[in-house]
Amino acid sequence: SEVNKYRRLRPSGAPRRRLPDALIIGVKKCGTRALLEFLRLHPDVRAAGSEVHFFDKFYHKGFEWYRQRMPATLEGQLTMEKTPSYWVTRSAPRRVHAMNPAVRLLAVVRDPVTRAVSDYTQSASKRPSLPRFEQLALVNSTHNWGVPWSIVDATWGPVRLGVYARPLRRWLRRFPRRRLLLVSGERLVADPAAEMARVQEFLGLKKVITEKHFYFNSTKGFPCLLKSETSPTPHCLGKTKGRSHPHIDPSAIERLREFYRPYNERFYELSGINFGWP
Ligand code: A3P
Predict the structure, then answer these.
(1) Number of structural domains the chain divides into
(2) pLDDT-based confidence at residue 211 (cuts at 50, 70, 90)
(3) 121 ligand 1 Cβ < 6 A
(4) pLDDT tens profile 48-101
(5) What is the tens place of the pLDDT at every residue in 97-135?
(6) Within a domain: 226
(7) Whole-number mean pLDDT of the chain?
């Protein structure tokens, strides 16, 4: 019969596409690709390869469209996706909650000063005529007792995105704190296995990703993978990840540190974690 034919083709337990169980919601340039690629080492995780942008750009297409963008999974496997712009999309917390209030959220965060330089470096790689970082991050202000004075341009995207407290508050209005894991971008580089142990525990996964998966590539200056599902040989993330940054005037760096200090404090309070950024 038709029913039996269908059952033969799709026996129960056959892979099927499902809406995500967990999302990497940000933050841009904090190591979101590394986190996703590391998670994909796990046999119980299946993730969309490219950023889907459902909750910011394509929400009007509906959940069925979104589901079709997901890889097929077996019962018990987690479906994942990462789109860093969700972090700062005002409607995203409400929309994600409407999909599944029990979804697990992951956000990678990193010292906002290096994040800003990383963001700028990415833009400059596409637009070589871009002014220097210092010129964009700082605006000249009225002289202070005859001393030329410059203030941080908080409206410039690379600066603004490093103010983590405001978006965190928005997510925490919809989701309990225990549903959101904040991953340290610094620790993901310095000790990927330790950070991935926390991630696997948060996702309720068996601890499969360990020290054995990583090696430090001193040419790249980052941890790389010994093998993965897609490649049986050692490999690093692509060359757009782990770029070298331009030299930035130390006084501009200091200005930015002062600018971020109160926002970082607020973020530590809200998150309950002191990330210890300088
Ligand atoms: P840089 O290229 O400026 O160093 P995202 O994937 O969110 O865009 O973040 C990119 C950043 O991830 C990189 O910024 C790099 O610092 C960081 N990163 C973390 N772990 C990495 C790894 N194993 N390989 C390469 N980059 C990594």
Answers:
(1) 1
(2) very high
(3) yes
(4) 989 999 999 999 999 999 999 999 999 999 999 999 999 999 999 999 999 999
(5) 999 999 999 999 999 999 999 999 999 999 999 999 999
(6) yes
(7) 94
Site to probe by mutation for ligand 1, drawn from 30, 184, 241 as the one with most ligand atoms within 8 Å of Cβ, is 241
Atom of ligand 1 nearest to the CA of 27: 7
Whose alpha carbon is nearest atom 16 of ligand 1?
242
pLDDT band with cut points at 50, 70 and 90 for residue 38: very high
35, two tokens? 């986190």
151: β partners: 139
Structure tokens at 269: 């309070």
- The structure tokens 């525990």 sit at 201
Residues 6+ apart with CB under 8 A from 207: 197, 200, 201
For residues 265 and 245, the answer to whether their CB atoms sit within 8 Å is no
- The CATH number linked to 65 is 3.40.50.300
Give domain status of residue 277, yes or no: no
4 lies in some domain: no
Q: CB of 154 within 8 A of CB of 160?
A: yes
Q: With cut-offs at 50, 70 and 90, classify the pLDDT of residue 8.
A: low
Q: Is residue 1 part of a domain?
A: no
Pocket residue to mutate for ligand 1, from 33, 86, 110, most atoms within 8 A of Cβ: 33
Distance (Å) from CA 20 to ligand 1 centroid? 24
Q: Which domain holds residue 162?
A: 10-271
